[in-house]
Amino acid sequence: MSHLPLIRFAGVFSFNGEARHVTLEAVSLVEARLIAERWAVGITGEAPPLAVSAARTLRKHPREEIDDFLTYTVPEIEAVLKISRPTIYRLIARKIFRPVPGIRHKLIPRDQVVKFVAGSGKHGRN
Fold first, then answer.
1. Is the pTM of this model over 0.70?
2. Per-residue pLDDT tens for 9-19?
3. What structural domains does the chain harbor?
4. CA distance linking residue 38 with residue 117, whole number of Å
5. One-character DSSP codes across 79-90
């Protein structure tokens, strides 16, 4: 089975009146449009080559790729769990999600997200 090379596409979506930019990867424009429709993102065209960075992109199978991360950002939790940003911050306020301390962005450990989804009753609490 041969694997087709992925093409990077740029997309944009609106969140709280702000335009947010994302990239996604697909084997064709048709597939990119299907992915974008599923995620409510508008395709703006082919993305420029990726500069060397630690930027995380939205891919065809975000759940498979995102499983490798030890922590999730709020936008990643939004995309994967399909819950709103205010809901995520509510879960943080209720201490169901406990962000990693001492850093600028909210990073939620993967085990807390998995416990929340599994509905274990404990969620992110110790």
1. no
2. 887 777 777 77
3. 1-47 (no CATH), 61-120 (1.10.1660)
4. 21
5. HHHT--HHHHHH
